[in-house]
Amino acid sequence: MARVTLRPFTLSNGITIPANTPLALPQSAIHTDEEVYTNAEQFDGFHFLRHSDTEEGVTVTISHEHLPFVLGRHAW
Questions:
Q1: φ, ψ dihedrals at 32, nearest 5°
Q2: CA–CA gap between residue 39 and residue 45 (Å, rounded)
Q3: Measured distance CA(69)–CA(64) in Å, rounded
Q4: β-pair partners for 9
Q5: What single-letter DSSP state applies at residue 3?
Q6: How crowded is residue 27: how many other Cβ atoms within 10 Å of its Cβ?
Q7: Residue 34: Cβ within 10 Å count
């Protein structure tokens, strides 16, 4: 997963990433990490599907651990 910063960003540890900096994340390594997901190596097509008790019946949740959803301001 590759992105480019649009403006400077300071991380919680004090490191600042300048604007226009290309970044990449090890998406596959994160998604197969047992500390992040239980049974990470086992396929579960419903892993991110959460059932609710509402009339709609099913809702899909997003999280910071599932990177393809990106979680930009449009997600909230």
A1: -115, 20
A2: 12
A3: 9
A4: 17
A5: E
A6: 13
A7: 9
38-51 pLDDT, tens digit per residue, is 788 888 777 666 44
Asked if 66 and 48 count as a contact pair (C-beta separation under 8 A), the reply is yes
Give the C-alpha distances (Å, rounded to integers) separating 71 from 42, 53, 55, 59. 24, 25, 26, 16
Strand partners for 58 = 51
DSSP 5-55: -SS-EE-TTS-EEPTT-EEE--HHHHHT-TTTSTTTTS--TTTTEEE-SST
What confidence tens digit (pLDDT) does each residue in 23-34 have?
988 878 887 888
Residue 17 pairs in a beta bridge with 9
Evaluate whether 6 touches 19 at the Cβ level (below 8 Å).
yes
Query: What's the predicted TM-score (pTM) here?
Result: 0.46
